[in-house]
Amino acid sequence: MTPVGKPLGIAVLLAALAGLALSRPPDDAPYIVVLGIAQDGGSPQAGAKEHRGWDEPALRHRVASLGLVDPSTGGRWLFDATPDFREQLHHLDRIAPAAGTPGLAGIFLTHAHIGHYTGLMFLGHESVGALGVKVYGMPRMREYLSGNGPWGQLVRYGNIALEGLRDGEPVRLNDRLSVTPLGVPHRQEYSEVVGYRIEGPGRSVLFIPDIDSWEKLDETGTRIEDLIAAVDVAYLDGTFYADGEIPGRDLSGFPHPLIARSMERFAPLPPAEKDKIRFIHLNHTNPALRRDSDARRSIAGRGYRVAEEGETVGLRGEPSRPH
Q1: Taking the model in full, what pTM does it have?
Q2: Which tens digits make up the pLDDT trace of 273-298?
Q3: Which DSSP state fits 123?
Q4: DSSP track, 130-166
């Protein structure tokens, strides 16, 4: 046990209590940090008048997002720009300070649903007034941003610079980091939908926060089990835990794989593969958001995890644990 009398121990303890774990891999290893785990509306959501999170900060959760940091170059990237962009950028600034504001080498967008791109508004002249932040998106995603206000203004004013992606083609960030978009089936009202494989010098991470179902992915010729096998950690859509969690709503037809069904599908996997899986993008109704819930205990008991805000995954060596 670390003596709490030491200043560093106190700082880490207070940060953890505030939900801002300051853990990070040692030396100059690049790493992923989880900046949020909730569905697009956050938790609690607007209008959820009786949610305990309004009075208990430990029950509040930011919208699902990952940060990628390379200490050797000072490079920082975001995966999705959420409505919680301000707090998530601040968290990144605390654990990996960078010169300038916002100090981002780029933002990779998964799709055009509100929890995944609307944080771009904070790059505009009403807020940060950023200059040329690279925003990576698929063709329809870029067309949507450039052709619709207020996002098109960010392009015209030079706050963001749109960068193209192609399904399955890696983007080389530097000599030890690359990002590959992976098309997935999900509602495409305004744009394509992708997940990402993030590769470092020794380890890799999969990020798929939204997908209709693993069975629909099968129909594209790709099996989720194969994607999991090719990485070291997999952050997967865990929006809802099981049918019945929203009174009066049949979740069986919702375009998300229920965690309970995902666990059934992944049951044949060996323990080492199950241990890679961390459910993310949890709706505010999802009981697995609560660490003391039966749902969370069931997930852990079957060999899986729920992503934790502030946890880091080293891309060279073993992943660290949230403090």
Answers
A1: 0.88
A2: 999 999 999 999 999 999 999 999 99
A3: G
A4: ---EEEEE-HHHHHHHHHSTTHHHHHHTTSEEEEE--
